[in-house]
Structure formats: structure tokens, C-alpha cells
């Protein structure tokens, strides 16, 4: 099969030329601006660079349209004119907003009706991975093989930021080939699952007296001690001979257990050699004196192995000479240790079995599997007819809708030509399936302007809540034309969220909405913030995911994002937060008290870490983050001539003192009045997520107590707060704003386009619809999915 035909199919994407329409604002709007705004916004020295003197009332220019939208929004919110200037009457303000908004909204809706509010949108890397997995029945992680994606307005799903370069085309072809190779391998060969049980002696080092980084034998157990030595605790006996998913069952106990907690251990995977230092997370557990069993699953590339070791940074760390550990060296230092009793290692597959893969690829045709390393064959009495039927069936699944004869005809012709050239049926099918998976009908969402048809709606719903192609039930409903019916659509929302795959929604969405994808970007300075480790970090992520999942499952108010009386902790994270009475390595719901200094997603460690740089905190960075991600307040980029604020870690000046200059500048003050309140409210949390009352100061490499932290500030509307709880209470006075922001974030993530000026009316309807449920998270999701924004292109 020739790749040029495949690439040609892939590249023939329709190019849409957008005709510019003209909007026309009531000329009286200029009179309002002249009376209330022109003093500050005219000429070269206009404040914020907004010159209103030459602003047209009728134009096809998008920049002029955006300026009018900006003006209307600021007048409507009361930001313009500023509070210390003469104010227009409420009647004149309302009249200006209403009469000016109408033509702007009409213009934008006309554009949406003609071209769609969402332009051409393609699958993201993660969506492509899951789609190929579900389409072919494979379980290979594929997203890591693709180039990193840009996030536009925070999301990789937004169409405006998606592009296809020739490098991405090449990577797409490689990924498709990897997926097809694995699917055909499993369909045409014998099963490759296996398991083996390993004793402690088999897990330990082979040469008992050798200095190395494998466990040593002690009293019949394979033992490793607490240490910062890299790769200590590696298990060469678990080395993978081929790429795949592996299940590790370990029975272990702790040695020299601390009085108030167990020995927390990490399970990670990698080559465990200096030439490949990166390790992947597989899990953690708290070992105690009594032996227990734990199970972990991880993807291992060929040559990878498991590493199991104490990972709690608060434990006494061993000192070993030469980077290797000898027998008895940990015992002599009285270190905490992990004693492995036995291990079971299994090669497993996730998802469908080999028979189901055969069915999807070859239908009811007879397959003769090959030996372990020998490909099998597909038997057919009528290769051309069977190929045509299988290709049409495969194309319908890949394109997420029934395929017309003219759409599938080129693929069938390709297969027939391949057979005529002497290729086997298996080779012909593989080449044609490859072409289908490189088609824009597969990679892109097939949506026409206007209301989505049931198949497009099924795809949009499934990719929002599961991140993958629609399942059989959604496709059946779409075929019957029932999915768009309100009752049925609501039923499907519930079904998808209640399914085990529904938990992917919270993780996928939070990964981008809350920047949790950035949690590995920095590491807190160990000298400034001792006790932080990878177990704490993963526990923080689990806390946030579980918290959001509970909000969704129980339809809890969006207000819990700002403040709540519960969270989810294990014993390690509770100890890190200095919260007593939490035991065990499983997350459990914990009631919060005022002295815990916690409450709401906004105070969780994961959020504090992704909004800091590992060494210092900045009220500006956190303030912008909270404003845009939770409060729904857009913050424009800072003026180019204003230097950034770098916190003084010597403790000579507080961040408040350094920001005073910014606040005194007219170009900066309009934004800082929004940024600073949430930023300062969270200053008591350090970059590692812990509570503090004083800034740290560093002199001659030593940490000391710096200036006292002062969170006192005024809200943009003038209301004052002295403490974080007071700030939280002021924010919660307007839960509807939090609900509106969550709906807008969900619309951007789920539809591929951010909310425009014309969309605000529907957002208000979503908020009103969820009000009776106190703006419950599940209610907002349901109202968003059933809204016109979600159901139209």
C-alpha cells in the first residue's frame, strides 16, 4: 500500500473563507461615551491605551467589534466610569448597555449561524489515544508518542489553537501504525498474558554480599532502607521483556516503624540506570509492622522494571558510601525499612480480549493464529466482497456515523487494488484501515453549522464525559434519532457520569482547567520547605480529584470550590497538613475545623503548588489564577513597560511593599484591584501547600523567620477583609458568578470554542437552571450539555 494516497486523504481538509460581516451600533452610544468616558480615553495618552475618539459605530473590523464589547462589559459591571468619577444614572447606564449590546449580539449570532461558533476541531492527543484504543481494542499508551499540544485559553480542545503541521502528520502516521501493528499482532497470535510468583530471595540481589541498589536478604525478607540514593530498591527480576501492562502484587511489612505512623513507600517504574534517570509513578502505600498486600498496575516499556522503596522525606535518611549499599549498612544506622515477603508479577491487558479484537478487524472470518512470534492468517472464500463489508463497517465506527457509499468507495477501491496486486486479505485490510485512520473524517469532528445532528451530538457528549468515541448505546440512539430528545439526553448524561469511565471526566477537565498538568513543573526547595516529597504531591492530586468527583457525584454547590467543611486525606497528607487523627494509606473524607486553616478547593495543596514557583509565592500569579479559573474575571496581560515583581527571599521587603509601586500606576491599578484581593488572601500558603504565618528569610544559606504575612485587603467593590475566611465569605455572597464561570469553562472545554459576547444569555440560563440545586456541579454540567451552546456547532 502506498503512503502517498494516505497522506493525500489526510491533507485534503476543507478551507473555509470567512466573509466579514458589518455591525452597526446606535449612534447615541457615542453620546454616552462622550459624557462619561472621553475625559480619560482620548488621544495618544488615553488610559489603558483605549482611544474612543476614532471608534466607529459601523464597521466590519473585528478589532473595533472587540472594543465595543469591552466597553459594554465594563460599563455593565460598573467599572467604567471608575467609582471616584461622576456616575451616569442607572437608567442611562442600562439604556446604553441594552441598545449597544443588541446589534453586537445580533452580528455575532449571524456569524455563528453562517459558520458555526466552533470552527474545524480535531481530536486532542489524549482523545486520539483513547479512540484508537476503543476502535482497535488495544491498550498501548499513545499520547506520549505525539508532539506536545498548545493550550489555547487553557485548553487543548479549543479549535482556534489547533493546527496540523507536516511534523504532526508524520507523527500521526507513526501512531496509527503502532496501533494497527498491536491490534493485528494480538488478533493473529496466541495470547501473551502470564504470571509468576517470586519469593523474597528471588527479589533480592543475586550475589548476597555484593554492594548494589537491590534489596538485601534479612531474616528471610528482601529489605531496602530509607535513603535518597537514586534507584535504590530496584527489582531487576521484574524487568519487562516486552512493552505492556504489568500488575505487581507485593506482600510487605515495615522495619523500625516510627511511633506515630507507618513507613510510606513509593512504587515507580523505569530503566533504573543512570542513562535513563526518569521514573514513572505507579503508586504508594504505608507499610506497618504487620505484613499486608498491595496491588499496582503500570505500563512498562521493554527493559523497564519496578522500584519499591521507602519514600517519606521525613524519615531519617541513610548514608551509603560510593552510591551502593552493602549488607548490614542500613541496620547499623537504625533506619526505617521495607521488608518484602513475596511478589507476584503478571503480564495483563486492559480492555477487550483478543477474540473481540479479531471480531472488530475481521468480522466472522476464520483466523488461524500464529505461534508466539509468527503472524497468523485470515481465511476468506470471497476476499473482495469480505473486504468491502469489513471496510464499510470499520469506516462507520471510525467516522462515528453511518457512511455513504460515495464516502467509502475510495477505500474499497484501494483494498481491491491491493488484492489485485497480490497482497493478502490481511495486508489489504491493514493498509485500508490505515487510510481510514488518516482521514479528516476520523481525526476531525464532523459538524455542520446550526444544530448538531444526533451523531455529532453523540460524539460531542462522549468526548466531553469519556474523552473517547461514542459507545454502542449512544450510536444506537443516534441512529434512531432519539438522542436530541431532552429526557433521553439527560438520561445519557447520567449514564456516562455513573460509568467507571465517567471519572476520567473530572481528571481530564481538572488537568487543564486547574493547571494540574503543571504540578511536576517545579519542586519546592528542600531547605526552605522540608518534608515535601513525591508521595505528598501525588496525595495532593488525589485529594483534588476526589474532592471534585464527590462534588459531581453528590451535586454539591460550586461554592465548595471556595470554601468547604471537608476534604479527602490519607495519613501522609494529613501529617503534612498538620491535621491529626487520620490513619491509613487510603483517602478518606475528613471534617475540617477552623484551626486546620483549610477549606475549599482553593486552599488545597495541589492548587497552591501549581500557582507558585517552588521557592516563592506571588499574590499576582495566584490572584490572576484564582480570578480567571474560579471567579470568572478576565485579567489582561500587563503593560509592556512594567517590570515583573520578584519576591525578596532575603526578607528585606514584603511583597506588599514591592507591589505598592504597581498599584500607584494608573496603567496597573485597574487590574491590581481585581488581582490583589484573592492573591493576598492566599499568601499564608507557601509554595509547597503548607500554612505559614511568616515569610521565610534566607541569609548565608540558612532559613529564618521573615516578615509577618498580612492578608488584609479590599475587594474590587470596596468590601474589606482581614483574613482568608472573611475573603471566602465575601466571594460566596455571589455563588452565581462562580456557577457562570464553571459553565463557561465547561463550554470552552467541551465544545472547542470559548464563550463569546453573544453566548452570555445562554450562560445566564444555565446559571438560573442550576440555582434551585444551589448551583450544584452536576446540575451545571447537565444544564450546560442540554443548552443550545452545546447542541449547536
From TrEMBL:
<keyword id="KW-0732">Signal</keyword>
<feature type="domain" description="Cytochrome C Planctomycete-type">
    <location>
        <begin position="37"/>
        <end position="84"/>
    </location>
</feature>
<feature type="domain" description="DUF1585">
    <location>
        <begin position="717"/>
        <end position="790"/>
    </location>
</feature>
<protein>
    <submittedName>
        <fullName>Gluconolactonase</fullName>
    </submittedName>
</protein>
<dbReference type="Pfam" id="PF07631">
    <property type="entry name" value="PSD4"/>
</dbReference>
<dbReference type="InterPro" id="IPR013043">
    <property type="entry name" value="DUF1595"/>
</dbReference>
<dbReference type="Pfam" id="PF07635">
    <property type="entry name" value="PSCyt1"/>
</dbReference>
<dbReference type="InterPro" id="IPR011478">
    <property type="entry name" value="DUF1585"/>
</dbReference>
<feature type="domain" description="DUF1588">
    <location>
        <begin position="598"/>
        <end position="693"/>
    </location>
</feature>
<feature type="domain" description="DUF1587">
    <location>
        <begin position="121"/>
        <end position="184"/>
    </location>
</feature>
<dbReference type="Pfam" id="PF07626">
    <property type="entry name" value="PSD3"/>
</dbReference>
<dbReference type="Pfam" id="PF07627">
    <property type="entry name" value="PSCyt3"/>
</dbReference>
<dbReference type="InterPro" id="IPR013042">
    <property type="entry name" value="DUF1592"/>
</dbReference>
<feature type="domain" description="DUF1592">
    <location>
        <begin position="452"/>
        <end position="579"/>
    </location>
</feature>
<feature type="domain" description="DUF1595">
    <location>
        <begin position="387"/>
        <end position="447"/>
    </location>
</feature>
<dbReference type="InterPro" id="IPR011429">
    <property type="entry name" value="Cyt_c_Planctomycete-type"/>
</dbReference>
<dbReference type="InterPro" id="IPR013039">
    <property type="entry name" value="DUF1588"/>
</dbReference>
<dbReference type="Pfam" id="PF07637">
    <property type="entry name" value="PSD5"/>
</dbReference>
<dbReference type="Pfam" id="PF07624">
    <property type="entry name" value="PSD2"/>
</dbReference>
<feature type="signal peptide">
    <location>
        <begin position="1"/>
        <end position="19"/>
    </location>
</feature>
<dbReference type="InterPro" id="IPR013036">
    <property type="entry name" value="DUF1587"/>
</dbReference>
